[in-house]
Each structure stands twice: as structure tokens, then as C-alpha cells.
Amino acid sequence: MWAIDLPRARSGITLDEFLGKSSACTCTPPPLVRGLLNIRLLVGRLLGWDREPAATAWASFATRLTTVDRSRSLATAGKREGLFRVVYRFANEQLLELINRTVHAAVLSALVETADAYRLYFAVYVENVSRLTPIYIALVDPFRKFFVYPSLLRAVRASWNQVLGRG
User: Fold this and answer.
1) Which residues have CB under 8 Å from 16's CB, separation 6+?
2) Residue 75 lies inside a defined structural domain of this protein
3) Residue 56 domain flag
């Protein structure tokens, strides 16, 4: 799990509000991270890793939601958002998932207002989908932890500052 503190622009900011305002923000990752992601997407395309298995071959994490949670969600379960699908989005928490031939991943983001700032929590959980999953994760883990996630969180902070101000 990762956490970053974000400046307090005002009280009452929700994750949903931030995501809505920042969707138009063009905060691009640095060239190294873009390059790593492009290489991964190219290899995935060539080896067929990124094809989503047939819907009968996997169960979305959304199937575990209660009726109450489904009704509380601000986004429809299964809605595509880039490479991911929405599991749920509450005012200050969202879960996205990605399923392909390498992983079934859950990406959790949660925003908490503290006394003098906001804290964004970010976590990625991976479920095995094949014998390839542990090998794949072992190979990409250093890149995720040392380059991709820190860059992503810097982009979140830049987007926060751009759309909500520094506080």
C-alpha cells in the first residue's frame, strides 16, 4: 500500500470530485515510465497477454458486492475506464479491476481528510490466473514499485495541485 499527503485546498473534497475534475488533466508520466508501459503493452499485445478471458472464465470482484454497495456506487460496475473496469466508486473510495491472461488485479484508491491535509491511499492486489502470474509479477514488480507507482503518485499530486490548488 502506498500513501501520499495532498495539500488541503478546502474542506470536504471527495475522491469522486477529484477524479471528475482531474479527468481532463493532462498529467503525463515521465519518458522512462511511458517507455516501460509501452514496452509492456507491446509485449502483451504480441504474446496475447492482454486479451480479456471469456466472461465465463472469470468472476469480477463486483460479484462480491452487496446490494447496498451496488446501490451506493457512483459508477456502474463493469464500466470501462481505460484498461480497467469499475468494481465500485463511493464518494471517497474506488476499486477498479483488470483481468487478462497474466493477472486479475484490483486497484484500490481511498481519500481521507485529515486535520490539515488529505491522504490518498493506493494499493494493488493481484490474484493468480495461471502459472504465469507469479513469474510475471516477479519480473515486473521492481519496475512497478520503483518507477511506475511513484510516478503515478507524483502525477496524482500534480493533478491535485492543478485542479484544486496547493491549499
Assistant:
1) 74, 89, 90, 91, 92, 94
2) yes
3) no
pLDDT single digits (tens) 20-46? 988 766 567 788 888 988 999 999 999
Query: Is there a domain that residue 13 lies in?
Result: yes
C-alpha cell at 167: 491549499
The alpha carbons of the chain give a radius of gyration, in whole angstroms, of: 17
Contact 51, 57 (CB under 8 A): no
Domain annotation covers residue 55? no
For the chain, the domain total comes to 1
Q: Nearest 5°: CA angle at 133, between 33 and 56?
A: 110
Sign of CA dihedral 147, 149, 152, 158: negative
pTM comes to 0.88
Please choose, from the candidates 48, 112, 108, 115, the residue with its C-alpha nearest in 3D space to the C-alpha of residue 84.
Answer: 108
pLDDT tens digits, 87-146: 999 999 999 999 998 999 999 999 999 999 999 999 999 999 989 899 999 999 999 999
Expressed as residue numbers, the domain containing 153 is 2-50+61-164
